[in-house]
Specification:
By secondary structure, the chain is an alpha/beta fold. It folds into 3 domains: 3-132, 2-Layer Sandwich (Beta-Lactamase), CATH 3.30.450.90; 134-267, 3-Layer(aba) Sandwich (Rossmann fold), CATH 3.40.50; 290-410, Rossmann fold (3-Layer(aba) Sandwich), CATH 3.40.50.300. It has 13 helices and 15 strands. It has helices spanning 3-17, 28-42, 78-88, 148-157, 175-190, 223-230, 246-257, 271-280, 285-291, 354-361, 366-375, 381-390, 396-403, and strands spanning 45-52, 57-63, 66-73, 100-104, 114-121, 124-130, 163-169, 196-200, 211-214, 237-243, 261-267, 292-304, 309-310, 326-327, 339-349. Helix 6 packs parallel to helix 7 (246-257). The structure holds zinc ion (ZN).
Length: 410
């Protein structure tokens, strides 16, 4: 099945949901936008892209990490659709010449908000809506599909009373899903006997028993200030949506050194790079050595569908040191994509071995740190990728799409 056929299928499904709508009715655009968001969510999309072009407003959904074309809406109603989304997100409808960011609140108290971002372009405003589709799945740590060498130490780390556990990866690598699973694990292990709080931006799922707060920098309730105030709330476990700046990194590690277990996500391309970035942010090496319990680095790769075929030409292994590989084909089940579901590639780094500690104290670069971690037994993202390709779980192309063109050998 060709890519066009696949996209037509997604398009047909969406068009079918619009059949009952009458363009002459005054609430046409309101209904259209509601169904667009509803259908995107039902299809498991994480983001909705609305891109204006010469032909109209192109609608694309991000599913399993990849953008897929859905339809092109007529250019004549594009401004009304954008205006409707801006009203929903509380943005200034009369400003279309500046980027804006807002939120659409959930319809009920328990449903979650969606983030809306607009950006002026040549053909009009481009809108991206983030839906947080994945947080309902993979609820428990055991459901994440982590290898035992990562699952066991992670769950042990979550029983500790101090130190920082960082979940790191680039955007869209499932860090928040893992963070939520970790918090559920903490709640289950402690049977409600630990005081668990969170600072998030935004809250993506409600967690029973956790005192969740959403930071709002517009009101001065930012991460660093929230963390300082939280310390007076007698917390035992503090979850942080994402540490982004030196000040909150410093406060988070202070908490980790003074009797709290801190679990946070952090943006970095590898476990070693995460430590390097924290040092660059001004954290002292001795603070990292004593405060950092572990780094879990993760990437999300699409899994090959059952219709995958062997790749016999080594040129198609794209420079990966594998002995065999499979590639995507496409069938009805996978809607022609060749992939079905996703899997995690992980790295687990605990700064325990003398070699790793020495490299941290020396403020050495990420590459030296990675070599020391490998020496201490860390299995890198590349080794996991090679295993996954040889086992036929994913393709060389997918590995290169997610991990890039780097050298798989240390
Ligand atoms: Zn298939």
């Amino acid at each position: 099945m060709s890519t066009t056929a696949m996209n037509n299928d997604l398009s047909t499904r969406f068009q079918t949901t619009l059949l009952g709508l009458d363009p002459r009715k005054p609430d046409y655009v309101v209904q259209l936008v509601d169904r667009l968001l509803e259908q995107a969510g039902a299809a498991g999309s994480s983001d909705v892209h609305l891109q204006p072009g010469s032909e109209g407003l192109e609608v694309r959904w991000r599913i399993d990490g990849v953008l897929r074309a859905v339809t092109i809406l007529p250019a004549i109603i594009a401004p009304n659709i954008v205006a409707r989304l801006k009203v929903m997100a509380g943005l200034l409808t009369y400003r279309s010449d500046v980027p804006q960011e807002g939120r659409i609140a959930g319809a009920t108290a328990t449903s979650l908000e969606r983030r809306v971002s607009t950006f002026p372009t040549l053909h009009g405003e481009r809108v991206v809506i983030r839906l947080f589709a994945d947080t309902g799945r993979f609820q428990q740590v055991t459901e994440l599909g982590l290898p035992p060498a990562v699952d066991t130490p992670l769950r042990a780390a979550l029983q500790e009373t101090t130190g920082a556990v960082l979940i790191v990866g680039p955007a869209g690598s499932g860090k928040t899903t893992t963070l939520y699973a970790c918090l559920r694990e903490v709640m289950a292990q402690s049977r409600g006997e630990r005081s668990v709080v969170s600072l998030e931006d935004p809250i993506e799922a409600a967690l029973p028993g956790v005192a969740q707060s959403q930071v709002n920098s517009a009101t001065g309730f930012d991460l660093a200030r929230g963390l300082k105030s939280l310390m007076r709330q007698d917390p035992e476990v503090i979850a942080i949506g994402e540490v982004r700046d030196p000040e909150s990194a410093g406060t988070a590690f202070e908490a980790a050194l003074t009797g709290q277990l801190v679990i946070s996500t952090f943006h970095a391309g590898s476990a070693a790079e995460a430590i390097g970035r924290l040092l660059d942010m001004g954290l002292e090496p001795y603070v990292l050595r004593s405060g950092l319990r572990a780094v879990l680095h993760q990437r999300l790769l699409r899994r090959l569908c059952q219709c995958a075929q062997p790749l016999n030409d080594p040129a198609t292994w794209l420079g990966l040191p594998v002995k065999q590989a499979h590639g995507p084909t496409g069938c009805l089940q996978c809607l022609g994509t060749g992939y079905s579901g996703r899997m995690l590639l992980t790295e687990w780094l605990e700064p325990k071995s003398a070699g790793v500690v020495r490299v941290i104290l020396d403020r050495a670069d990420a590459h030296s740190l990675e070599l020391a971690a490998i020496e201490a037994g860390m299995i890198t993202r590349w080794s996991r990728a090679v295993q996954a390709v040889e086992a036929g779980w994913t393709s060389p192309l997918e590995v290169r799409r997610v991990l890039g063109l780097g050298n798989p050998l240390p």
